[in-house]
Amino acid sequence: MIKTKRIYDLKEDSDGTRILITRKWPRGQKKDRFDEWIKDLSPEEDTLNKWEDSKRTEEDWKRYSVKFYPQMKESKAVDKIEELRQRSKKGEIITLLCYCEKGEHCHRYIVKSMIEGSPTVVESD
Length: 125
Hints:
Blueprint: E1 2-6, E2 17-20, E3 36-37, H1 45-53, H2 58-71, H3 75-89, E4 94-98, H4 107-116
Parallel strand pairs: 1-4, 2-3, 2-4
């Protein structure tokens, strides 16, 4: 099972393995807030900056997604996605963590869909 949450949300027993998927360390957070940190599953800095500087419309999200998906097709990301897919298939509960608010467009939903083998993302937390 793959879940998603904000890094700032309280840690719960039902979270399983909490994996941070950001490039930068979350301000004010200690390492005990997550179990693993996989930078390879975060957008490249230029892609993230363009998203953060946008008005965050549906059209902006589409542009972001078009840039982000190919980044997740690079070998390091593909290997990590496959590793997480196998761990999930074996029954491990994995919670992907990022900074974004629940319900906002966020790369963690794209990564979740890729781990689950879904081609598109339409869901939120």
